[in-house]
Amino acid sequence: MIEEIIFAIGFIILAPFIGALIGGIDRKVTARMQGRVGPPVLQPLYDIFKLFEKEKAVVRNEVNFYIFSYLIFVVFTGALFFSGGDILLVIFALTLAHAFLILGAYAAVSPYSHVGAERELLQLMAVEPMLILAATGFYMATGSFAVKDIALWPEPVVLTIPLIFVGIVYVLTIKLRKSPFDLATTHHAHQELVKGLTTEFAGPTLGMVEIAHLYETVFFLGIVWLFFASMPWVGLAAVIVVYFLEILVDNTTTRVRWQVMLRSAWLVALVAGAINLGVLALL
């Protein structure tokens, strides 16, 4: 119990700094790919500090409540995951967090914000089937939904559910808001003026969204690591390779229509998830 609490507190304290470091390296690598020098590695932290120094300004007061709830549930999601909790509860908490983010965008009186909220809802619909299939795959491979039990499994779970791992990597592009699936909002400079989901967020409100993104990045990379948990250093190498591939895809593809995103994500979930689970059921 004490160990679980330590891991949860460790995530809450360290994840924003780790996420910011990952984001800073992301910007550096992206800049190099584009022939630029890029900002300092700690630039994501500087941006967040600057946002919290700005005046509080929201279109409607309830927006702050929704965004704060989004941040709290994202933190809860990651803390539950890294403390070894039930992976189904982790997925449900993450879904609830994004429901609050969508409500916050809808509460802002802006057509761009509303379009962004609708696209975020579509992205949620695209990702959820693969996440549920992944949780099912973890259970069929280890006999438990508990993240702690999955992490302590004597062999890498990826050997049992390799197709589900491929599916998770595919939808990770959506969750990290990377091109070609950065439909709801993006961090690319050429879309800063009209950022869809976060168009009407500013100052501390936008700062909370950015902090939540840092927590989410660490959480999703933690899921990638979980497939290799019995070999921690191999898992770390897999996380680095997967994130580099995400950056590469982000810089070599263009945004697709939401129909393509939704159909492709469901197709990957159907093919990768159903086939892998079907094979496990027959063994």
TrEMBL record:
Which key words are in the record? Membrane, Transmembrane, Transmembrane helix
According to Swiss-Prot or TrEMBL, what is its membrane topology? Multi-pass membrane protein
Q: Which GO terms describe its cellular component?
A: plasma membrane
Q: What is its main location?
A: membrane
A Pfam family of this chain: NADHdh
- Is Transcription regulation one of the keywords? no
Q: Which residue windows are transmembrane per the record?
A: 6-25, 63-81, 87-109, 121-141, 153-172, 218-245, 265-282
Localization recorded for this chain is:
Membrane
Q: Which InterPro entries match?
A: ComplexI_Subunit1, NADH_UbQ_OxRdtase_su1/FPO
Q: Would you tell me the protein name for this molecule?
A: NADH-quinone oxidoreductase subunit H
